[in-house]
Amino acid sequence: MATARYRLERVQRIPQPLETVFSFFADAGNLERITPPFLHFRILTPLPVTMQVGARIEYHLRLVGFPIQWTTRIEDYAPPYRFVDSQLSGPYKHWVHLHEFSVGVDGTLMRDVVDYEIPYGILGTLAQKLFVARLLERIFDYRREAITALLG
Q1: Which of 50, 69, 108, 125 can bridge 21 by disulfide, Cβ–Cβ 3.0-4.6 Å?
Q2: pLDDT (tens digit, 9 = 90+) per residue, 50-103?
Q3: H or E stretch covering 71
Q4: Total domains present in the chain
Q5: How far is CA 96 from the centre of its chain?
Q6: What is the Cα Rg of the chain in Å?
Q7: Is the pTM of this model over 0.85?
Q8: Residue 112 and residue 6 in contact, taking contact as beta carbons nearer than 8 Å
Q9: What does the pLDDT look like over 104-132, one tens digit per residue?
Q10: Residue (of 64, 24, 20) closest to 40 by Cα position
Q11: Tell me, what CATH number does 135's domain have?
């Protein structure tokens, strides 16, 4: 039985120039600033990370008390318009996150598209329905609020 892929998509207008917004997101250190405290998120890779295709970033977080190690790799890097990270190891069977930026009215339009798949077959599907989808929504809701507080 094939497992299902899921997608989370978010768009946010940020009242800052394109280059400013891209620079903020290209600085891996800012990821801790826009991640909810309940995840106890830490970047393990020494900062600053040189963002480029092939760059690897290691993280540690806690979810419901369980420690999770997560490693991503930058698959595409096209400043100031986009970058893509994918999971090399971590909690998902598949995780690809597109960060896309374009000039918008009075600032920058930022678009996040996350395509993901949960392991464990039918149990993963059940987890998606019971809490994973809501958890990701909650994380990206927090992220939207943090970005608004930091960048306007």
Answers
A1: 108
A2: 999 999 999 999 987 899 999 999 999 999 999 999 999 999 999 999 999 999
A3: strand 66-78
A4: 1
A5: 9
A6: 15
A7: yes
A8: no
A9: 889 999 999 999 999 888 887 787 888 88
A10: 64
A11: 3.30.530.20
